[in-house]
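input
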Amino acid sequence: MRRNKQRYSIETMKKLFLSLVLTIMSVAGYAQSVVGTWVTEGGDSQVEIYQSGDNLSGKIVWLKQGDDQLDVHNPDKKMQSRKLVGVNILTGLTKKKGEKWEGGKIYNPKNGKTYKCSIWLEGNKLKVRGYVAMFHETQTWTRK
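output
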């Protein structure tokens, strides 16, 4: 009888362990991701963030002022006639610590400048930080 109790105990432990592993895997599958469509701070535009290999990119998919807005502030004169909808403004972000993505660039079509960039989630908000030397500005984007 004692032997059966030990066997039952080991079998129970195996089932419990398997259940725990499956639960952890399912929770990880539901973990929030930065991938998706985000409304920029101020609500002037929406950016779709997508994964391409090991990198993240993000393109403008909607503008409050309409789809015909041009990239008039781009320092490259040839680019000033392109429409902003479809322009990749986030490029080259790679995953670092936890859910932080760094090492990329963000293009600001309002002034035509490109900055170093990192992004991360805080709850259900996306923090987008642009850097110039040791100075930075952080915006909060919301999921669409």
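quick obs: The chain is about 20% helix and 45% strand.
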